[in-house]
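Postdoc handover notes: sequence design on the structure in folder B. Input tokens:
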């Protein structure tokens, strides 16, 4: 949203505003989506605000988006980022049914790697067991949120990249460098300390169905 005068005035008095949250609204008909966007723009304008033009968009997404765009020669459906995941239209391998793939946002993963690298460099001369316990908590915390169906490749990549970052730091502090720390030795260390990447969360419809069963009981 644009920073209008009254927003700057409130911030000057020490009033803190929460960070903006992305809002995703789904419509069955394109006309309804366009009407809602127009209404939002008019509503915000009444308060001296406006939607961010580069962050607000209408996209064709859903069960029939792939085949409709193929008929028009428009390419694959657009994607959108929400709650740390990039959402994509896809088809199941077994039956070719429509599904939604959710992958960890690549930009956020790179930022996380940069933070881990910085922390590893600070812990360069700490005992390996101590660093391993710290890394295990960090990696497990990330996996606890991102271990969802269709995200297996990103899970494996995350653990692999963390292993590479740790190896680079170990080689920097070792006098023997690469000759002392081979990939085989590093993999043994990673298997000892880092959790294995695996999907732990069910599909959303499965989770919702289980909650209904619990509520019925």
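Designed sequence:
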């Amino acid at each position: 949203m644009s920073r209008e005068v009254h927003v700057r005035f409130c911030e000057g008095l020490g009033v803190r505003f929460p960070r903006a949250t992305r809002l995703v609204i789904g419509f069955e008909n394109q006309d309804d989506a366009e009407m809602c966007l127009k209404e939002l723009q008019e509503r915000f304008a009444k308060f001296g605000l406006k939607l961010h033009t580069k962050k607000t968009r209408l996209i064709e997404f859903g069960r029939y988006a792939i085949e409709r765009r193929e008929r028009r020669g428009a390419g694959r459906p657009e994607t959108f980022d929400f709650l740390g995941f990039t959402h994509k239209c896809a088809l199941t391998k077994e039956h070719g049914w429509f599904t939604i793939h959710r992958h960890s946002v690549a930009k956020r993963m790179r930022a996380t790697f940069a933070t881990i690298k910085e922390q590893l460099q600070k812990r360069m001369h700490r005992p390996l067991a101590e660093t391993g316990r710290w890394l295990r908590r960090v990696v497990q915390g990330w996996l606890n949120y991102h271990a969802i169906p269709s995200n297996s490749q990103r899970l494996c990549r995350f653990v692999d990249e963390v292993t590479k970052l740790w190896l680079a730091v170990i080689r920097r502090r070792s006098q023997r460098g690469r000759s002392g720390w081979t990939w085989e030795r590093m993999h043994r260390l990673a298997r000892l300390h880092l959790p294995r990447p695996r999907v732990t969360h069910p599909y959303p419809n499965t989770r919702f169905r289980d909650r209904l069963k619990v509520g019925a009981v």
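Context for whoever picks this up: The chain has a mean pLDDT of 85. Don't rerun without checking with the PI first.
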